[in-house]
Structure formats: structure tokens, C-alpha cells
Amino acid sequence: MVKKQLIMDKALELFSEQGFEATSVQQITERCGISKGAFYLSFKSKDELILALIDYFMMQITADIDQSVRSCSNEEELLYVFYFTTFRSFSKHSAFAKMFLKEQTQTFNEELISKHDYYDSHINESILYILDQLYGEQIEETKYDLLICIKGFIQIYSALYLRFNLPLDIDSLTKSLVEKTALLAEHSTIPFISGDIIRIIKEPIHEQVTTEHIAALIEQKIDDIENPIEQESLQILKDNLFKTNTSLAITKGLLENIKNNPQCKWISYLIREYYQL
After folding, report:
1. Which of 30, 138, 146, 264 has the CA that lies 20 to 30 A from 127?
2. pTM of this structure
3. pLDDT digit string (tens) for 257-273?
4. What are the residue boundaries of the HTH tetR-type domain, all occurrences included (predicted)?
């Protein structure tokens, strides 16, 4: 196992058991069976390790949700696909979700809050896309209230499952939430969310989706990719970011080449957002 991944895996175990504050670097290194020097070769601090964990899992969850929603060809199934993928991802990464849920009841520093808001904004975009596809102008006045309700459903039901270790029938839960969301969409008429709040909700997603940011992420990943086709596809995608006449058809083909590599999920997601594919 790669040492950096080993540190992240063992740290996640400790954070889940004890929380961020109560876990020391010494405890992490003891759980890993490595020296403190080896730890600091991978991470400058415990805070940097925490941010790396949040990045790793939120990239997986957010990209899974977006890919499932965007590839759904039947509009009537969009809400089902969204809810099902969301709860399946939370279930798959339940150790991380439990840790994150526990820490949300404590004080996050500014960088952690910013990191949470960044990924939260991407999920907002997926939800708004679904609502626009399903209901269009019918919910123009209330769609941001619906956005908050959908996220509330996810948070509340996830908390029930994670805190009390309830058995999770994802299919039944998904169908129940699809029904509830449809009722709200069809019968809600009084909007509450203001224009100012809308701007706050939508603004953070665009902060880092730039050519320079995506190129830097590709540069970080490209040497870790062993498959030559995936590696070459990443290089071409990076080069194309700085061209004015990039072919979207070629870009889609290159994304197909890397879509099954877990290390490329977030890059694929950002490129789709960048080109609005």
C-alpha cells in the first residue's frame, strides 16, 4: 500500500473513533507503524491530512453523483438516480461520512468550512440541473426552496442511518424521497429563498474551475497513472485547455478513456463543468 494512502486509511479509523481534535500525529504514526518523519514526508501537518481526506472522499462522492445524473437518459428517473447514487455513495464511504457528521457538530476552522462549501456548491449544481430538467418554469419561483428541502432530506436520513446504525434499504428510501420531492415540486407555491441567498449558493462553485486549476490537478495525477492510454488522454486534455479551438467531440472521447479510473473522476467532473458537457 502506498504510504500516503496508508496514513489516510489509518487516520480515518482514528478520526472516526476519537474525532479530529483528540487524535494526535503520534497516534496516527503508531497505528500506521511508521515514524513521525515518514508522516511529515507525506503531510506537512494534521490539518493538511484532514483536508486531503475531505478532498479524496468528497471528490469521489460528488463525481459519482454528477456522472450518474448526467448519464441518465430517462428524465423521469433523474430524481431516483440522484437519491440512489447519493445514499449508495454515503453507504460505501460510511466511515468518512460518520467522521464528517460528528465533526460538523464541533467548530471547523475557516479552511475546512471553505472546503465543505466548495463541494457543497457542486452538489447544488447537480440538484438544480435535475429540477430544471424535470420541472422547468413550473418551479421557477420555488426551485431554490426545493434545493434546500432535498438537501435537508439527505442530511436527516443520512444522520438517522449513520448515528443509529439503522438498516438501510436504499431502494425503498429513494422511492420515498422521490415521492416527497415530487409532492413539494407540484404543490409548493410560496417561495422563501431570496435573491441574495441564491447568489451565495451559486457563487462558490466557479472559484476554482479555471484552466490553471484543472491543469495543475492533471499535472499532479498524470505520473501516478499507469495505463498509457489514460496517461496520454490526460496529457491531451491538459494541452487542450489552453487552445481556443478545442473539439468538444474529441474532449468527450478523451473523457471516455479515463472515466473508469477512480483517480480521474474529479478531473473528469471539472472538465465537464468547464466545457458544459
Report:
1. 264
2. 0.72
3. 887 787 787 888 888 87
4. 1-61
